[in-house]
Every structure is written in C-alpha cells, then in structure tokens.
C-alpha cells in the first residue's frame, strides 16, 4: 500500500505547477480558522488528477483508503476519482462496498471540490433505488463535509427527476451557519428548478425571507431578470 501511495504521489507531483501550488491554498481557504485550514496542495489541476486516476483505477479498496489519508489534497482527490471510475462499471455489491468505504472516510473528504466531484456519483447513484435515510443523518452531523455530501448527493436523484429529497434537505439546512452550505443548497435547488421551474419558484417565494441571500441568489440564477428582481425584494 505504501508503494502505490508513493507511486501515485510521484505521478501527481510530475504534473504539478508552481503557479497552482501558490494559488490553490488561497482558493481553497487553508488559512488559520478557514474551512480548509492546514490542507496541503501540490498544485495539480483536476484534469491532470483525473488522468492519473484513470491509470490506477484497478487499485484495491485498502489502497484507496490509504490514499484518502494523505496529507496532500490532490492525492485524496485522486483516490475519490478512482472510486468514481470503479463505480461506473460496478455491480450493486461493489457499489455498496465503495459507498461504505466513502462514508467511513468523510473526515478526509474535507473540501468542497472533493465532495462535489464524488458524492453524487458514489453516494447518490448507489441510493437511487434505496432508502435515503442516511442522507438525513449526514445532514444532522456536526461535520460540515457530511452536510455537504448529503445535499450534493441528491444531484443523482435530480437527474432522474426525483426532487423530494433535495427540497426536504434544504428545509433542514436552511439556516446552516456556513456559506458553503448556502451555496450547495442553492446550487441543488437551481438544478431541481431545471426539472420543474414552477416548483422551485413556489418554494423560493415561500422561503425567500428566511433563506440566506447567497442561497437565494444561487437558486434563482436561471430565472428571468423580472422573476429574480421580484424574489430578491426585501
């Protein structure tokens, strides 16, 4: 397992950029007291991480788990993208194992890009024909990343026209203290609105006074200027 970690870390390092290595820590808020505090970046773009992941998609679950504990953000992202690749062709039994592995490691899936590039493809797709109870437990977790996993996972449901859980989870997390959740909820509401614009309009009209402004702005982004103006009124 140490060998594969070393190999993948080296492969990523070969694709690193000094410019990105300087930019990423600021972009992903790694300063003291920020949501990504202490995270370390090699400076590798997502397309390059994805290229490395495709070359190593046959590694074991134990090796993935080891990669997920890496100090390097891009190594953890690579592990998650490998899991996504595995899920694409997996049967339900294999998807369940990947689902369980994913949820056992959420403390390492600890930035918004890590969640957004993996949660709906691993958690959401697995739950398409199953109980979504676990998402409501994640929504009540004290860990920010569990909360984001819960709402972003519903993107898989939205793509199938299943909108109930998106709205229900947004109800629960409407007053979440972190703007990362306001953005995530607004994003998922916007996606749900593409399937049923009237339902989104009615939901926002009911909740616009209690909804955080950034969540509101994200949710109504695709509405007409006139609709946006009406919904943004104090």
TrEMBL record:
Cited SUPFAM superfamilies: ARM repeat (SSF48371)
Residues passing through the membrane, by range: none
Origin superkingdom: Bacteria
Pfam families: DNA_alkylation
InterPro entries cross-referenced by the UniProt entry: ARM-type_fold, DNA_alkylation
Protein name as catalogued: DNA alkylation repair enzyme
Organism, as annotated: Segatella oris C735
């Amino acid at each position: 397992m140490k060998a594969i970690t070393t190999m993948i870390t080296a492969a990523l390092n070969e694709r690193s950029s000094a410019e990105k290595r300087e930019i990423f820590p600021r972009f992903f808020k790694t300063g003291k007291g920020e949501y990504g505090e202490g995270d370390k970046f090699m400076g590798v773009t997502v397309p390059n991480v994805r290229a490395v992941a495709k070359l190593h998609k046959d590694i074991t679950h134990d090796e993935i788990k080891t990669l997920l504990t890496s100090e390097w953000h891009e190594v953890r992202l690579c592990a998650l993208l490998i899991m996504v690749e595995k899920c694409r062709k997996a049967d339900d039994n294999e998807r369940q194992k990947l689902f369980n592995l994913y949820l056992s490691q959420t403390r390492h899936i600890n930035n918004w890009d890590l969640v957004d590039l993996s949660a709906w493809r691993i958690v959401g797709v697995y739950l398409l024909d199953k109980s979504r109870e676990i998402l409501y437990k994640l929504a009540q977790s004290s860990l920010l990343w569990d909360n984001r996993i819960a709402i972003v996972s519903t993107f898989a449901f939205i793509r199938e026209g299943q909108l109930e859980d998106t709205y229900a989870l947004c109800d629960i997390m409407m007053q979440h203290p972190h703007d990362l959740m306001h953005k995530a909820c607004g994003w998922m509401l916007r996606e749900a609105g593409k399937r049923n614009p009237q339902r989104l309009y009615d939901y926002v009209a009911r909740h616009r006074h209690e909804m955080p402004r950034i969540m509101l702005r994200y949710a109504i982004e695709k509405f007409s200027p006139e609709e946006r103006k009406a919904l943004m009124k104090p």
